[in-house]
Design brief:
This protein is α+β, with helices and mostly antiparallel strands and about 220 residues long. The protein is built from 9 helices and 5 strands, in the order ααααααββαβαββα.
Length: about 220
């Protein structure tokens, strides 16, 4: 049954108007962006299929570029979802710049998942922070296959001094989809931490982003 044929109290748009966006499920919110379904399937049913295939909203947005052909998700709808993702990225980035990064760890995690989750190659970024742990800027320093040899501590130290940073949060992605740190990741983090300690810049965390997941070194006791 098409959504216009549903009882008005069950239609996503009417429910949003009556109860607010928080009353809607993930599928209903996504359906409002999709607007239409496909033959024999409503926009809500299509949204449920997309979320199931991607593993939820975070997986959908993080892996949008890699999502295979899905009936009903053509170029126009992909462009719409990509635009929504970019708006969300910019909102989260603005929130980070406006406040203390460590006061909103969920915002940092969400921002990094959206920033790095759909990259087809590895990238290494630094969130440079001031003495109050407010974000100065997010800087992409290296890309490609990241190893201790390809991420140069000297270049990271130079970037820290150029940003006049007091602390940093590192992040890189694993396009393989596995968010587990390798031994090389641990050695690299230790090497960077030691190099930055020489110029009084604290390493607060290192995130590995894979799809909809962002693993924290600090939470794992790896710093």
């Amino acid at each position: 049954m098409a959504i216009p044929d549903w009882p008005s109290a069950e239609r996503p748009r009417e429910r949003l108007a009556a109860h607010g966006a928080q009353a809607l499920s993930d599928a209903e919110l996504l359906a409002l962006f999709l607007r239409t379904g496909v033959r024999g399937k409503s926009a809500v049913a299509l949204a449920r299929d997309l979320l199931a295939a991607a593993g939820g909203l975070a997986g959908l947005f993080a892996g949008l570029a890699r999502l295979g052909r899905v009936p009903g998700l053509g170029p126009a709808k992909r462009a719409q979802l990509a635009a929504v993702l970019e708006v969300a990225r910019r909102v989260l980035a603005a929130e980070l710049r406006a406040g203390a990064a460590l006061a909103t760890p969920a915002a940092v995690r969400d921002y990094l998942r959206m920033l790095l989750g759909d990259r087809p190659h590895e990238v290494f970024v630094c969130l440079w922070l001031d003495a109050q742990h407010r974000v100065i800027r997010c800087e992409e320093l290296f890309r490609g296959t990241l190893t201790q040899a390809s991420v140069y501590p000297r270049e990271v130290v130079k970037a820290a001094l150029a940003a006049n940073a007091a602390a940093v949060i590192f992040a890189h992605n694993h396009p393989s989809g596995v968010a587990q740190p390798s031994r090389a990741d641990e050695l690299l983090t230790r090497s960077l931490k030691e190099a930055l300690a020489l110029v009084d810049v604290r390493v607060l965390d290192h995130f590995i982003v894979a799809g909809g997941t962002a693993l924290s070194f600090a939470e794992r006791g790896l710093l």
